[in-house]
Fold this protein.
Amino acid sequence: MELRLVRRQNLQKLMDREYGVGARGAQSRLAEKLDKPQNFVSRCLAEPGRAGAKSIGEDFAREIEEAFGLSRYALDIPGMGLGEVIDVAGLPEPLAKKITSYRPIVQVERFDVAGSMGPGMEVPEVNMVVEHMGLDANWVRQNLNYSATANLKLISGRGDSMAPTIRNGDALLVDVGVCSVESDAIYYFEMGGRLHVKRIQRNLDGLTIISDNTQYREIVVPADREADIRILAQIIYWWTGRSF
């Protein structure tokens, strides 16, 4: 689904949750909460293609998240984890506990660390968690391949060697449960004391490190030198809205 449609649907869901579905004056109250003119909010909620319809831009999306106490980029995730409340009254106690303990949001730690899409970045002395991102659990299960939700982490990409696939500054969702090259994919790894984000292809006699930007040359790693590469994670999603 296009990002503009996801944001519009999520804003509608937030308004319905806050003020009631179809409640009179809901748009006016939402506009007041977001400190925007009502006409502006109305245009953002309008169906695409309608006269005056407006897409929710990057700055406004982050303002909405802040106003509703959501984690950064939550508005960009289909559903945002805002599932329906299930009435467990009358259900057997074990089942009721299982349902009530279920969390529709997967909290992912974001680290203050970046992988280089270029010459490499120095390994930091300490990996610090700077924030958390909440991802809709259903979206995670349906759209991502991963080893375990606890292994999902966020880092950043820096450089242009993976362009146009991954751009400089993109948020990268990684699976730290992947510590070896079992298939051709994009990996976060350490080589020569520096951190990299590159595509790695397994060959019969070793590995080939590939940059999607053709201005960068491939690096061939023979089988007897594979130990020089320490795989830290596999890149499974990045926030340009495309999965791998």
